Amino acid sequence: MFRIIKRFSSQLTKTYQDVVIIGGGPAGLTLLTALKTSPITKNLKCTLIEGTNLDKVRQFNDPPEYYTNRVVSVTPKSIEFMKHIGSWDYIHEDRIKQYDGIIAYDSQDSESRIEFDVSNIGKDMLASMCEVINIQYSLLTKIESLEDDTINIKDNIKVIDIINPVEPDMNHDLNEIDKNTAIPELDWPIVKLSNGESIQTRLLIGADGYNSPVRKFAHIESRGWQYNKFGVVATVKLQFEDFRSVGWQRFLTTGPLAILPLTEDNATIVWSCTPELSDLFLKINEKIFPHLITAAMVLDEVDLNYIYEVLKENPDDFSILKDIEWRLSKFDPLTLEQNYPLPVVEVISNSRARFPLKMSHADTYISSRVALIGDAAHTIHPLAGQGLNMGQSDVSALVEALEKGMQRGMDIGSPLVLENYVSNAWPSNHMLLGVCDKLHKIFSTDFYPIVFARGIGMKSINMIDTVKDFMMKQISGK
Amino acid sequence: MSVQLQFKRNFILPLILTSSVTRILFSESNVLANKIESGLHYLDPNKKMTRELEKNNQPFKRRTPDYPGHVPLYNHEKLLMFLGSSIGSFFHPERNEFIVALGESTAIKPILKNLQSTMLSNAIGRQILREKPRITSTSLNLDYLRSLPDNTIGKSYINWLDREGVSPDTRVAVKYIDNEELAYIFQRYRECHDFYHAITGLPIIIEGEIAVKVFEFMNIGIPMSGLGALFAPLRLKKSQRRRLREIYYPWALQSGLNSKPLINVYWEKILEKDVDEFRKEMHIEQPPDLRNMRKEYFEMKRREKEGMKL
Fold it and tell me: What is the ipTM score, two decimals?
């Protein structure tokens, strides 16, 4: 009798799904949208589980006055994909800034610089700056507009455990005769949720970020390293709207500092720096910080180190502004105007935040009935602004693989189907990760021979248009 | 039968032909058409300005000076100046123009940049660069210095000046170093040189000069002082060289390396400070007095001579 009740209750709480996506970030939401808009895969039963409340994303319907500080660069290729799946129609277009060039230069030698101008390859934009929450909002709105009852979005619910019903015993004797030739139970992973539910799924997707529990469940090793650096982000206001609409990046030895344009006089900064400096940057007086950014885009590193020292003593030391002004006055005003970004005049209160920088890449993105996308599969240094775009191309490759599998009548959880996804997505991601990692390393030194060599490298790349065009095509996604 | 020699006037026809063809080719409308084809069929109003601009872009024209009194030199000129002044100053170290030119031609950019970053990393160094003080007999008020107590920096400086019979105005203005700030740094180094003599108490005679140069080179790294320290002893007497080797070189090397950068000292602001205290702060040891030592040495020689006579 007791047994029957137990069996009954377990049947009650257990549901079966085709795809369970863990993580409601841009990658997870994009995958859900892509699956439900593809004519081939739209009948799959899908569930998305997100730990935080998605109402915050829904509230973006009425966006705040100032920009949020999580802003990403979205390449034309990613935009094309989001147009294809139909979510781009719902984006707040007025909060997107297209920019058509990047000017990157070296702090040790302001002469060595690369100027990318996208008009040389006959396109009208290199990439667009867009808030992460804007993308999430557009995707979520698109999903909800489908009014599809096979979509299940469970927000504010945490995953407690993931169980593999047929966990293979790794230490078994190879000569022993296998007793369970036929699996009595389904080999689909079981996801246990904080609300007591458990879902058994044909395919489990890990879109759950750097510390991915799904990746750990699948025993996929992720390799890489911490840079021991932090990225400080903030939303700032420039002196006036810059007609140039280019992104600026200066390679300081402590890490690159980038000022990227947003609409009107708004801009966003990403400043990679040591942990101590990131502490300092979050602490510095709100009225001093904008001047520090302006100084860091122009002044020599000796000056910056002195300024840091003074501000470490007292983060509200306004006397430093005079010092910055004096050092800036050493520059020819015309050069300042032409070769450097506009001065920053204001930082939006409470927009400063930091996050640790690291490089990591999973050995593979799949195992039986599991696939990883986005940050769960790879994390990258933000210096080329490729993080979100790599996630989008993952989704596009995964959906393509699943479509192919469906059309051939295969089980979409089978490695035979998923293999296709890894072989398409992994190599290009690996190359990008490597390039960004090396760039970071080359520029984080002031050792003169290397400074000299990279100066030659940058100047010659800047002169050879074919190389530059090739690089621009890579950055903007072909 | 008379043969009439007749001059055949066959040039008339060609003349007419040529003139008519020319008239067609170089007619007013054709000339205008040619001008239109080449792009300028009107008078260029900017002609005068363009010519003037071109004049400015002439090759081998010296660029505009970075600061008043600056003489921008080409690299080959700097090299020639270095060669000439180094030979000159080896044979005539007493002639100031050679020493000055050698100093400026060896102060190459990386070294000055290095010195600049030393100054920029220090609050007082930055203050000096911002205020750009000059040390002259008018900026210092020498009479006030004479009235200071004995053991102050100001007093030992003025004592040193009086003893050696020199004046702060004997320092020449920097002319050949590019970039205003770097030039000022070299000027500052030059003007502070007398203070190094004052705080070390070493005289202006050649041994003292060499010792201060080594000290300076170890502390500041201006190559001129290194060169001086390297080549000047070649002209010395044996006894002088021994004195240098045994007493002054060890002192200069040790003090120069251990002391804080002297270029970051705002001398004008610490004239009232005690010399011993200052030396302790900067980690400088005092060398033995060269004048006294020389006096003792000559005394000894004289006595030896007298002894021989007796």
Answer: 0.72
